[in-house]
Design brief:
Layout lengths: L1 H21 L62 E2 L9 E10 L4 E8 L2 E4 L5 E9 L2 E4 L2 E4 L8 E8 L2 E4 L7 E4 L13 E10 L2
Parallel strand pairs: 1-7
Antiparallel strand pairs: 2-3, 2-11, 4-5, 5-8, 6-7, 8-9, 8-10
């Protein structure tokens, strides 16, 4: 009887050990690789970080230097796009007959004053220069694409001219409508020449 009980115990132990061997051990968890870390601080110009970019953090699109902004963006100076035109207001029309200019020979160190008529051509004596004279604006203003005068008072006198040397336009650059001489601020867009200088002195009122 004791032998039979011992045999039963041994059989039960074998069954228990065999079942335990069949159980699979749990697989260790797969280590997760952390995603790319976004660098802190501003990125260098034109550099995009590697890896996915979080939603809502796309870097601003910038146009390369020297190129126009992408389509859909306004130009930084939208009012300046187009061709300018001279508009003489009614309060100024017919009130000025000409202008006085100072012609300087920088080599000979001489200065001469000339009175020239508006909307005419003037050949400078003893030189190869010819001046095409346009309008005189006593109170020069820029209103969008219009070059005009704010009043008939000489607050900012300006004279539109074109200068030719031996028949070739040298002021302003070819293709531009007019160059402007400013009496009170002659250093603004001046007529530049290795030998000559032309400066607006004042306007001449009609009558």
């Amino acid at each position: 009887m004791e032998k039979r009980s011992l045999a039963i115990v041994l059989v039960l132990m074998c069954i228990f050990v065999f079942g335990a061997c069949k159980k699979k051990e749990p697989e260790p968890p797969t280590p997760q690789t952390p995603g790319p870390v976004m660098p802190s601080g501003p990125l260098p110009s034109g550099q995009v970080p590697a890896g996915p970019i979080p939603q809502g953090q796309m870097p601003p699109r910038q146009a390369p230097m020297g190129q126009m902004p992408p389509s859909g963006q306004q130009s930084p100076h939208p009012g300046m796009m187009g061709k300018t035109q001279v508009v003489v207001p009614e309060s100024v029309k017919g009130k000025w007959s000409g202008a006085r200019i100072i012609f300087e020979d920088k080599v000979e160190k001489t200065k001469k004053e000339f009175e020239i008529k508006l909307n005419s051509n003037f050949s400078v004596p003893n030189s190869s220069l010819r001046i095409q004279v346009g309008e005189f604006l006593p109170d020069f203003r820029m209103d969008g694409l219009n070059l005009t005068s704010g009043s008939n008072e000489p607050r900012n006198p300006a004279l539109g001219v074109k200068v030719f040397e031996n028949g070739k336009q040298i002021f302003p650059a070819p293709g531009k409508q007019w160059g402007w001489l400013f009496a009170k601020v002659p250093s603004i867009h001046p007529f530049e020449h290795p030998k000559y200088r032309i400066i607006l002195k004042e306007g001449v009122k009609k009558g």
